[in-house]
Design a protein that fits this description.
This protein is α/β, with parallel strands linked by helices and 267 residues long. It has a six-stranded mixed β-sheet, with helices on both faces. Strands 2-1-4-5 form a four-stranded antiparallel β-sheet, covered by helices on one side. α3 runs parallel beside α5 and α5 packs parallel to α6. The longest helix has 18 residues. It is globular. The chain starts with 23 loop residues before the first strand and ends with a helix.
């Protein structure tokens, strides 16, 4: 999924929010997102409260139109809130200017999208370090080497995207997200353009980045198998969190999704 345009609609003023849980890399409290007015009004998120634990891999699932991508975009500072609170660490997003949001996304958040978003004229290593180059920061050589080794790209760093398979291109995108040591990585359907083997490799790398590198990952997916790589699955329906599942298996996730669909269809 391509990165959406950033909305500049101001959030509705809210009362001061409770501090984020100490082990949360990001959290939402009463988060609402509304599009349109009058007859065209759509409530995409309805007073969502959720936190994403530091050093954990969380998947967000739900039917089409449930609000899962909207939740990720609001939490990542890609879209503004209509009400409530969203925080990255101790930073409240709704009070930030556009410049401050840009700095936050650059310095504290990593992004992985379905479309890879690599520059075709740059090599793999140049794509990986590009956000830091733009920010005028030098990568930590030891950390960069560890990231490259973790995602299995050591022999492909001088290749351009056209010389890489889809799975290798997405691994470059994963490495780019990890290279700056962000507080949290948001991944929106990161295996949507990959075959099952390449998708499994990328999901394995994301899981390894959590377990071995201490990274925090939040992934939107519609795939029960992809969700099973996570530590926890959060389920949305009609803009609200309806359930969650720890230590998920594909069968458990599919069963919860079927149950959720049945509840939505029952009058």
């Amino acid at each position: 999924m391509s990165q959406p345009p950033i909305s500049h609609t101001a959030a509705t003023p809210t009362a001061p929010q409770a501090p984020a849980p100490l082990d949360a890399a990001a959290c939402a409290t009463g988060l609402s997102k509304v599009y349109g007015e009058g007859e065209t009004r759509v409530v995409a998120l309805d007073s969502v409260c959720v936190d994403f634990g530091r050093g954990r891999f969380t998947a967000i699932m739900g039917p089409s139109g449930s609000g899962k991508s909207t939740l990720m975009h609001c939490m990542a500072g890609l879209d503004t809130l209509s009400g409530g609170s969203a925080r990255i660490g101790d930073t409240e997003l709704s009070g930030l200017s556009d410049r401050q949001l840009t700095r936050l996304r650059r310095d504290k958040i990593g992004f992985i999208f379905q479309a890879f978003n690599l520059l075709p004229t740059l090599t793999a290593i140049e794509n990986i370090t590009l956000p830091m180059d733009i920010a005028g920061r030098k990568p930590d050589p030891q950390w960069l080497d560890l990231v490259v080794q973790t995602v299995g790209l050591a022999g492909r760093l001088q290749h351009r995207p056209s010389q890489l398979s889809g799975g290798q291109q997405q691994r470059v995108a994963v490495a780019r997200a990890l290279a700056s040591r962000p507080e949290i990585i948001f991944a929106d359907e990161p295996t949507g353009n990959l075959d099952s083997r390449s998708g499994a490799e990328v999901l394995g790398f994301l899981r390894d980045s959590v377990r071995e590198l201490g990274q925090t990952v939040v992934m939107v997916t519609h795939d029960p198998v992809a969700a099973s790589y996570s530590d926890r699955v959060v389920f949305l329906a009609d803009g609200r969190i309806t359930d969650e599942l720890a230590a998920p298996t594909p069968e458990d996730v599919l069963d919860r999704m079927r149950h959720l669909d049945t509840e939505r269809r029952t009058p």
